[in-house]
Design a protein that fits this description.
Elements: H1 2-41, E1 44-48, H2 53-68, E2 72-76, H3 82-90, E3 96-100, H4 101-108, H5 117-132, E4 134-136, E5 146-151, H6 152-158, H7 163-169, E6 174-177, H8 188-195, E7 202-205, H9 211-216, E8 222-226, E9 237-239, E10 252-257, H10 258-263, H11 266-275, H12 280-291, H13 297-307
Parallel strand pairs: 1-2, 6-7, 6-8
Antiparallel strand pairs: 3-10, 4-10, 5-8, 5-9
Length: 313
């Protein structure tokens, strides 16, 4: 009985030890997994945008993609104009927002306009890092530059597809201008100096909201636009090619605080993956859904990411 009792006691001690070890191992593994998950979930990224349709859509697209990747997102969209958003980013009120290379070059850095997209991107990338500790991520194929637009009818009648040709035939055409366009160096004044010509038969001022309707109603022949305007999904409108590259490139890219990327470099991978799906046609359609079809930008952004398989339906 004594020997049997000792053996039984040893077996119980051994069993108890094994149970304790198993529980400890499981607890440590669970704690490690919990810590890894917690680290990511506790990373809050403050996403900003400017105060117009396209910027709101892009801000929401990047926000949703980050949330799908497991990050917490604090939206600070609709901040205001360029300098409001840029200042918020510099001061850490936001961690990132979508910006345009041409805007960074001219409005923020006060550099002279350049026409080569890669040189513009390289310069703003370098200067932003040196001056502000801000990083430009991979650019999209969205170039939201200024443009002149006519109707299919006018384009066919005068053989107009480029600004060079428009400069020649301008004396036969009526321009529907927008505020300040006549006097700006990047407007009519600059076009006349750069291309020559551009002496329109008449120049009349119209509000931004009705400019396309004006030429479609044959009240004018040419108007001022931007290359990603939702109205350009209308097949009756023709975007004229800036064949001599008067306007600088305005490619969209996320700009982010360097310290945010240092804390979690995987954020860059998430944002770059989204940027690869964006181009002028895509953004024209997204803008049209909001500005013309009057849908909510949040709904449009979510639908786009679902179609691309970036977030689950």
């Amino acid at each position: 009985m004594k020997i049997g009792g000792i053996i039984m006691k040893k077996r119980l001690i051994l069993l108890f030890t094994l149970v304790v070890l198993l529980i400890s191992t499981a607890a440590c593994g669970g704690q490690k997994e919990s810590e890894n998950t917690s680290d990511k979930n506790e990373t809050t990224i403050k996403v900003g945008s400017k105060n117009f349709t396209e910027s709101l859509i892009l801000g929401e697209i990047y926000s949703l993609a980050l949330e799908e990747a497991g990050y917490k997102v604090e939206r600070k969209l609709n901040l205001g104009g360029t300098m409001v958003a840029h200042t918020a980013l510099k001061e850490g009120e936001i961690d990132m927002y979508p910006e345009y290379t041409g805007t960074g070059l001219i409005n923020v850095l006060q550099e002279k306009p350049m026409s080569d997209p890669q040189k513009v991107y390289d310069l703003v990338s370098q200067k932003y890092k040196e001056k502000f500790n801000l990083v430009w991520l991979e650019p999209t194929d969205v170039n939201n530059s200024q443009a002149l637009v006519t109707t299919k009818k006018v384009a066919e009648k005068y053989g107009v597809t480029t600004l060079s040709k428009l400069a020649e035939v301008a004396p036969k055409l009526r321009l529907a201008a927008v505020p300040e366009f006549e006097e700006r160096d990047d407007g009519l004044k600059g076009l006349q100096k750069f291309y020559g010509g551009f002496q329109f038969k008449s120049v009349q001022l119209f509000d931004y909201g009705i400019k396309y309707r004006v030429i479609l109603n044959d009240e004018a022949d040419v108007t001022v636009g931007f290359t990603t305007d939702g109205d350009l999904t209308n097949e009756e409108l023709v975007l004229l090619e800036d064949d001599k590259k008067f306007w600088p490139p305005y490619y969209v890219a996320p700009v982010i605080r360097e310290e945010t990327l240092e804390k979690d470099p995987k954020i860059e991978e998430v944002l770059n993956k989204v940027s690869k799906h964006l181009n002028n046609k895509v953004v024209q359609n997204l803008n049209a859904e909001v500005d013309i079809q009057k849908r909510e930008y949040t709904e449009v952004a979510k639908e786009f990411l679902e179609e691309k398989g970036i977030i689950k339906k």
